[in-house]
Specification:
By secondary structure, the chain is mainly α. The protein has one domain (2-251). The chain is 76% helix and 0% strand.
């Protein structure tokens, strides 16, 4: 298992796309701070500073991580890397889990780098800001929740990569999931509930799609019940997508 992880990280650090996507994610953090400063010259008077600029650009981290993983996973099939590993007797579970760990590392790295870019650029523009323990803990909590939602969402996209095993199809499918799933879930599930006599209520799509909590957890002080539900939903996606991905990978022939 450890050798598989080392091999994946070796290939990860040799990929130019890993650095390009990360750099673009960090650049978004800088651009948004500069844009705010250009649109609102008196932004500092309204409380803008480096500490509250860590969230600038984080909304784009999901997109850049998704694009990179959607290219990396299928390429391992295209190059025959995964097939060679399996033929050498390496457990398919180990192969899948290693890719999942690599995906988590990518999501965390992009998030931390983008947050750092936002903090540095915000500090240059408006100063670091006043350090308060309560505000710091609140920011840290929301940052951790954002990472959780990000990781759980990317686990779904990694599963898709193993199911499709083709770069073009994986990129198209994952971007479709990222941008239109939230729009489609509400009418579909509400239609089922409306026509099912045991239910007498409607739902909102944000309650059941992990991708929405990437945005929700970036909001200032979300209600505790929303946080609790979000954690449960995100972890459910992580467990189910990982289980489905491993099961189907073990049962299918490797192309």
């Amino acid at each position: 298992m450890l050798s598989v992880i080392k091999s994946d990280f070796y290939k990860l650090f040799r990929r130019k796309s890993f650095y390009i996507c990360g750099a673009v994610a960090g650049l978004f953090g800088i651009i948004l701070v500069v844009l705010i400063n250009s649109l609102y010259p008196d932004a500092k008077d309204y409380g803008y500073n480096g500490l509250n600029s860590v969230g600038a650009g984080l909304g784009q981290v999901t997109l850049l991580t998704t694009i990179f993983l959607s290219m990396f996973i299928p390429s391992e099939f295209a190059y025959g890397t995964i097939k060679n590993m399996a033929s050498r007797g390496i457990s398919r579970v180990s192969i899948y889990v290693s890719k999942l760990i690599m995906g988590i590392f990518t999501a965390v790295t992009y998030t931390l780098f983008t947050a750092l870019c936002g903090f540095v650029s915000g500090s240059i523009m408006w100063g670091v800001g006043e350090f308060k323990s309560d505000d710091f803990l609140e920011t840290l909590k929301l940052f951790g929740l954002f990472l959780l939602a990000q990781i759980c969402l990317e686990s779904v996209f990694i599963m898709v990569g193993f199911l499709i095993q083709h770069t073009g199809g994986t990129v198209a499918t994952n971007l479709g999931l990222l941008f239109i799933t939230d729009i489609l879930i509400t009418p579909i599930i509400n239609f089922v509930i409306k026509n099912w006599p045991l239910f007498g209520y409607t739902i909102k799509s944000e309650e059941y799609w992990a991708g929405n909590y990437v945005k929700v957890f970036m909001e200032v002080s979300p209600e505790q019940d929303i946080i609790n539900r979000g954690i449960l939903v995100c972890l459910t996606y992580l467990v189910i997508s990982t289980a489905v991905g491993i099961f189907t990978f073990c049962k299918r022939d490797i192309k």
